[in-house]
Structures are given as C-alpha cells and as structure tokens.
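can u pls check wat happens w/ NAP
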Amino acid sequence: MKWILVTGGSRGIGAAIARLAAARGYAVAVNYRSRAEEAERLVAELGAPAVALQADLSRESEVLRLFAELDKLGGVLHGLVNNAGILEQQSDLLGIGEERLQRVFATNVFGPLLCCREAVRRMGGGGAIVNVSSAAARLGSPGEYVDYAASKGALDTLTLGLAKELGARGIRVNGVRPGVIHTEIHASGGEPGRADRVGPTAPLGRSGQPEEVAGAVLWLLSEEASYTTGAILDVAGGR
Ligand code: NAP
C-alpha cells in the first residue's frame, strides 16, 4: 500500500488533494488540527484505504506522534503534501507582533520542515514531497499579511534546498504556489469574501477552486513528474 500524507487535509485545498489522491489509487492519511468531524466525514467518503490523524503540526512533539501513528498502519510512505497553513487577521506591519509571528512561522515553516525530516526517515525507496506555498511568496501581501508571505518565501527556499539535498536518495521535492482560491482561509484573515473581490484582477478573471490546485499537486507526486524536482509551479490564474 502506497500512502500519501496530506497535512491540513480536513477541508479546503487539502481535502481536494486527499480526494484526488484516493481517486488515483493511493492510500490517504488526512491530518487535521481540530475539525475531527470534517476529517472523519472526508475519510468515510474516500472509499480508498484512508485514515484521519489529528496533530497540531506547529509542535515538534505532535509531528513525531503523527508519524508514529502512520508507522502503525503499515505499507510505504510514498508522498508527503505539506499543505497545512495559516494566515491571521489582515494587518499592516505595525500590527504584527511576536506571538503572531511565532504561530505563523511555526505552522507554515517549522511544521513542514519537521514533517519533511520525518517523511525522509521513512522514504527508503524514494518518494515525493510537495510543499503548498502561495503566490504571496512572490507578491509580498503588503498591508494584509507580509508575515504570511515571508513564511511562504521561506517554504519555497526549503523546497529548493531539499530538492538538491534529497535527489541522491530518489526523493523529489517540489512546490505549488496557489493564487486566490475559494476556501475558508480568507475568513481567518477577516475577509471571507476576499476570493470574490480579488478574483477578477487575475489574468484569467477569477479565483481558483481547490480542485485546480489538487491536479497540480497530484501530477508532481506522480511518475509523470519523475524528472521534476526543485520546481515551484504557479497555479494562480496568471497572477
Ligand atoms: P483552510 O481552508 O483554512 O484549511 C487549512 C487546513 O490546515 C485545515 O485542514 C486545518 O485543520 C489545517 N491546519 C491549520 N493549522 C494546522 C496545524 N497547526 N496543524 C495541522 N493542521 C493545521 O486553508 P486552504 O485555503 O485550504 O489552504 C491550504 C494551503 O494552501 C495553506 O498552506 C495555504 O497557505 C495555501 N494557500 C491557500 C490559498 C487560498 O487562497 N485559499 C492561496 C495560496 C496558498 P482544521 O480543519 O482541523 O482546522
């Protein structure tokens, strides 16, 4: 059995990735932080071998617990999708403080790095990692969340470094940078309708759907991308 671990898979982009991974024949581990009901409902829907695993990946002890639970399932870990991510209330620089920075960087950078480490320990026969970044890493998100944008810039750098470090082990590491996608993340920034407001400014004239990001992620995980590593694919409607 080939497992794909999708962090933050209970909803939004992560849930779309989990659905497509199951449809492509992978066994799917759906990690979530707090929304157990949504994660369990998704797992029941997937049909393929699937499991919901709670862990707050901003903490190393929880990362270790998650992978220990994964070990008990048997089979092989083929893929890790570092999808879990947060942003906070829209704010300019003057409103950003240490506690917020700790939360954003612990979730968006430390967690993915630690998950990469634990995944690599288990990917003896090679594997694939996809880091879900953001177009914000290129655009900077001025006046809204420069901290979030900077955390995604760090994630892109991690993708580049690990692709070089892990190539000899047969592990490919790539990134996907979504533009504005219709999910609940915008509500946590204080603007639930942000996708509708910003969508028309993209060259394709609209915001994206989670399934449109999932397609890119599953391609990067697949054999079709066997010579692709260190790539960061923009899925942002041309933004
Ligand atoms: P979302 O709808 O807010 O879902 C976030 C997911 O991450 C949930 O499953 C949540 O679990 C999980 N999560 C959050 N913190 C976690 C933690 N500490 N440990 C484990 N899981 C955690 O977000 P989304 O829009 O689908 O975003 C997914 C990824 O795409 C993020 O990395 C985000 O930065 C990136 N992205 C999104 C957009 C966009 O416009 N939507 C654009 C660019 C990039 P619970 O359900 O249990 O809370």
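The first helix runs from residue 12 to 23.
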